[in-house]
Amino acid sequence: MLPRISIATAFILLHGLGFCLESFSQSPQSTDGQQSASGAEANPNRQSPNGIAGVDPSSDNATAPSDHWFTHQVLPILESRCYGCHSHATEMSGNLALDFASGWKTGGDRGPAIQPGDPEASLLLQAVLGSDAELRMPPEEPLSSNEIAILRKWIADGAIDPRVTPPTVAQAAPWWSLQPLAASPVSAQHPRLDAHSANPIDRWIERQLEPSGLTKTPRADRRTLLKRWTLDLHGLLPTPEEWHQFEHDTSPDAFEKVVDRLLASPRYGERWARHWFDWIHFADSHGYEHDVMRMEAWRYRDYTIDALNADVGWAEWVRQQIAVDAYHPERSDWLPALGFLAAGPWDQSTAATAQTTFDYQDRDDMVMQIMSVLTSTTVHCARCHHHKFDPISQDDYYALQAVLAGVGRGNVPFDADHTVHQQREQAADWLRRAAARDESFLTGTLATDSVAQWEQHSESRHVAWESIQPSMLIAIDGTQLELQTDLAVVAKGPKPERETNLVVAEPGVKTISALRLELLRDDALPMGGPGRCDNGNLHLSELVIEITRQGSPTATPIKIARSLSDFDQDGWTVAHAIDGDPKTAWGIHPQVGQDHTAIFALETPLQTQAGDRLSIHLRQLHGGFHTLGRFRCSTTDASPSEWSLIPSSIQTILAVEPSQRSPAQRVDLAASVMKSRADAVLRALPPPNWVYAASNNFRPLPQSEFYVPWSLPKNVFVLRRGNIETPEAQASPGALSCLNHVPSRFSLPESHRESDRRRALAEWITHPENPLFWRSIVNRVWLQHFGQGIVDTPNDFGRMGSQPSHPELLDELALEFQHAQGSLKWLHRLILLSEAYQRSAAAPSSSEFLASVATDPDNRKRWRGNRRRLDAESFRDSLLHLASTLDHEMRGPAVQWFRLGPAIQVTPSVEYANFDWTQRTAHRRAIYRFVYRGQQDPFMELLDFPDAAQLTPSRSLTASPLQALALWNHEFVLNACEELATAIRSQASIAQQQVEMAYRLLLLRPPSHSELEEASAFLERHSLPAFVRVLVNSHEFIYCE
Amino acid sequence: MKPSQSQSLPLVDRRQWLTHTGTSFGALAWTSLLLSDAKASSQDPTLASWGGELPLRPDGGLHHPPRVRRVIQLFMNGGASPMDTFDYKPALEKHHGQSLGPKDKPEGFTAPAGAVMKSPFAFQQHGETGRWVSEVFPHQAKWVDRMAFIMSMASKTNVHGPGSYMMNTGFTLPGFPCFGAWISYAIGNLVDNLPTFVVLPDARGLPYNQRANFSSGFLPAKHQGLVLDASIREPIPNLQPAAAFPFAQQTADHEGLQWLQRMNSTYSEPRTDDTQLAARLSAYALAAKMQLSAPEAFDLSRETESTLDSYGLRQPTTEDFGRRCLLARRLIERGVRFVQVWSGPSGAANNWDNHGSIIGELPPIAKSVDQPIAALLEDLYQRGLMDDTLVVWTTEFGRTPFAQGSIGRDHNGGSFVSWFCGAGIREGASYGASDELGYQAVEGKCYCYDFHATLLHLLGIDHKRLTFLQAGIDRRLTDVHGRVIHDILRHPA
């Protein structure tokens, strides 16, 4: 039995890829054991090799070995039985390709596959005979004896093979989705249709409808339209007030007013963000084994809602999501856009134990997402071999991986407040220039003014420090400490991994309000010190001060109120030196080779007497030789401040009259002042915000500290058969070669920034002449509004996808959308105001209607409206919305509609049962809930919330007994019924009024006479919430006509 | 759901049907027509989306007669060690302490390979087949003559998450439908008053990947596994309204539901063209049936004391797994198509992921399943359920013959063991072999593709023809691989 010949089939036949047939033919196959089903299917157009029953090839003397004989007898067998594993389009298993002559001549791992003229010595024949179990081929069903006979004869006759050129990737033969967007004005061809409607949608729909004989349904009534529009744009049912207003609006632009009102509301962004998140498999946790919560993922959710509400142009929005750091480096507040790249699952376990596998897999997820969602191509099919159906090479695929070779996923710092970011940037700039001794900056107005100002103030803030003269120096782990003339202590000799220094002094009669620890650079130390670690760093785990009063046998610790430093290593602040935790410490990397100062202010000033002993314990317990190299301790009786952090070298300069200072001294002083000014600015700023995103600057999530950013993009190789063990050429950043609007391999300068790669990809994708990009989004928006796309496979415009039902319309929409600056709101408006969209779904039982159903049951020609069920979010949000208990608060951390139980390793157990649905956070819109990728909310899941492990271009909406039980009995629903009942009671006290009210609230219409009777009778026996429960489960409530 | 009358109805082309209908139908008549109107299957997304099912043969198979109608899968979470259970390797004793493993840490190992480590457990031959079983499985050892073993299972990964995905869905990535979802999609349920695919996780927690192992992936959500907490009396969610909502109880509940069905029938009547309305109407009717049947199905108090005892419900070590094995039998007996019983939660303890110490960690988890599994087999045979029930024992990968630390074993996708028992199985069969250390499968290497192909074959399904169109690809459980392991079948093709 032959299959229907689809486009895909025809294509495969053209390209000889019979292998793939088995997976898409739905037709029952012959059970005749003699007949190879796949062989029969591969060649409906030519005689099957098995179809030559009775022909004994060996006695077929009439047919001389020739190209013709090869093409008609041998090739079909190779195509249908061997190419599946041994061709360029597939995997070349064992490195053997049988799709051109050189393939079998060179052979695979075992050498030449065929010895022309000698069948018995040919590996190919041995394999199909199956005598050697190791060699047996094909692995599934063996060839028929007839097929074997043909191969034997072919080899015996010298294995004539005309296939001399190596096969290439599926040719970029004309394919609709790769053609440029074409304007084909329908008006020129059909002036009458043009007059019919101003809306291009209707012009093109009419053009197909007119000759089809289908009977259009009339425009849906106003109530239905309002329901459609509101659900489509807000994911909510309209309220009776909104209905009342629209019902009585007789103005000619009443429709436009409703659509514009809905588009202007922030509810629009909340609704459409959810569609976007379905498409890009966004969730708030990793998925996989270690399903870690991404507590900062919500920043991307808020960014998305804001971008939609602001109607950011489509191309611009996509550019931001791929490379906002390259396009808008100044807009830190837009950095959450990069949450797009990090939307999908992340396999922490593989990242930890199989790094190379992980890197390719992680980039694969990003590549798949970007290209499926933005260009409707299935590039990920080219991971192991060239794409079997579309002109996408493995090189293209790995070029895309190379684009992303510099980014990893984690928490990325940013400033949600733009002005904060500007201040932070300015301070960072001062720091950079001060560190670089940028003379033009340090002798400029800003710096000189700052110095003058600073000196004015420093006078009054000057604190006198007195260096401690130690009476004893101890290093308990073996370091030799030596006191220098400037009272600095130098560490020499043995170099233990850890150390604790003890400085003992007899200060005499004194008041001590603070201790200063100076870390001093020294050329004798690694990198100039001040630490002994190879990188010049040190880690001061704890600093403890004790006083031993004269005559007392015991030492008393002195409380330190706070600590200050001139510089802290990231994550190693000076506060750690007094936190009592030996695992944390103060460090100064990367500012090595320079002096640093820390000040420890005592809680109350310490009065010392003659004979008292002061002990300073400097514990350096981190290990890795993070010990002190050169340092000095001083004390003061004054109240210390940031000003006291001035290094002594600068204080020396300050002692010189300003007019007497050398130019070098001025620069040094200005650098110091600008640095301290910048530090003060930074200290005063709020800490950065974090977003879970992909970037080359991220902080790993807790429990994955092993995964840290890398400075240069990793090397990506084209992997033969997708196997990391068989890397081939190194890939360079690029995109698809089948389009030529810009070169498919990006020309980036040698020293390009990582983000330049992503920017180049964003340019390639969003280019005005990239037809895939513009068609893709137009089709998606269309699909959400109509329930089906112009192309039914939104993620695949390739040869395995569907063809557009209205290709000219798709192109015109794409072009017009482009001209409208990619305004999604413009597109919504155009669609929602079209006649095609407004057609009724309802079914008058006329014969015309039934005939139309029979002719076009899937409504491909849009002759009617489609009935659609409320999706999970629309259902639950609408219940609360109509009860007036929906909390419209926007933004903020994801609300958790579950309780967290004890974690196994890093994955907490997520408990959804017995949740208190009366609490306020349970009344937020569903877009704000925490979506746990591996532990989905069972209620939402039963209502067909998709598996966030997968891109979901459109949801399938099902009906099942478990879903019915959830809608009928789930505590959220029952609680919402009570809330709805309360809302109704607040406006109507008599049973009959309550029934009227409930119908108007939930179904936007009054009850019929019989409904009113039945409902009133039900209310007499039972309660209002029990009645509401029936209505919210009704078809009429849950379907939008 | 497959009411019997549907099978006698001729296949109706949807268009034909639509032109010939137009009068009102009772819910059941609708349902039966719906079920037979499924010729287009995955080719027609609108059909699949409201839950249309594939047309079954009169014998209940999809492509050929089934040998098996119901399946219980016992999943040992964490990577059960083959060489300490069923894969006896005397060579390990010979090479004990030698460094024969890979020098660099292979991808997916959690640590560099240590020296070869012999099994700390004694092995003995059992039954007439003389199968070697270690002392950790004294009860299962009595059943080896009835089982068929695949001694050469292999995985493409050494990492739990991808490994569990692979054994459940055929892919190492998330987002693909698991085996249970595929058979729900392919052949549906045997009855209409209980769910099709039930998952009974360890009381201590979900396995690696949590619920994603039971996902329907891109198949409609109704095919996903129903994860039940076996420790509560009424595990089916939302079966009854909570007591906190007095308005939803008793007569208000019953009369409300009846009224709803009337209301929805009235709504559906003039909309004959739209099958999703009827599907939803029948879903509520089935929900009502499930309310009646489920409590009895989960009520273990109806079992005899000796049954409870034999499954180990009276001992703390075996109680949890035993309860779930017994529940599995009760569900299977009542027509549930597929029950998956998990041993061990995710994480580093209480499962089969014995990195730290084989001798310390394996015996307790082995003991917790051994007696219940033997009791389950015996019970199924005694009740005649094994005529069409299959029990399979699986794990996501094996463990290294090399020590991790000094007495543990690391992950190893190279080789592991799986056994089959029950309908359609050639008793006492054994297929394939690992190398002399048990490190790599060398003879008859089987991936999940072959494992799943064999299971589907037994259920009357050709794995190559069970497809669903997703993102331009006709997806299969077995990807582009898979061959039926006829050597372990009683009726090899």
What value does the Rg of chain A take, in angstroms? 38 Å
Largest sheet of chain A: 7 strands, antiparallel
- Please tell me how large the radius of gyration of chain B is: 24 Å
Please report the total strand number of chain A as a whole number: 20
Instruction: Tell me the total number of β-strands of chain B.
Output: 16
Largest interface: pair, residues per side: A-B, 110 and 106 residues
> Helical amount among residues of chain A, as a percent range?
25-40%
Structural class of chain B: alpha/beta
Uncertain residue ranges of chain A: 1-64
pLDDT < 50 runs, ≥5 residues of chain B:
1-52
Count up the helices of chain A: 38
Oligomer designation:
heterodimer
General description of the model:
The complex is a heterodimer of chains A (1041) and B (493). Chain A is 38% helix and 11% strand. Chain A has 38 helices and 20 strands. Chain A is globular and about 115 Å long. In chain A, the strands form six sheets. In chain A, strands 2, 4, 5, 7, 10, 11 and 13 form a seven-stranded antiparallel β-sheet that branches. By secondary structure, chain A is of the alpha+beta class. By secondary structure, chain B is an alpha/beta fold. Chain B has 13 helices and 16 strands. In chain B, strand 2 (123-126) and strand 3 (131-134) form a beta hairpin. Chain B is globular and about 80 Å long. The model of chain B is unreliable at 1-52 (pLDDT under 50). The chains are: A alpha+beta (1041), B alpha/beta (493).
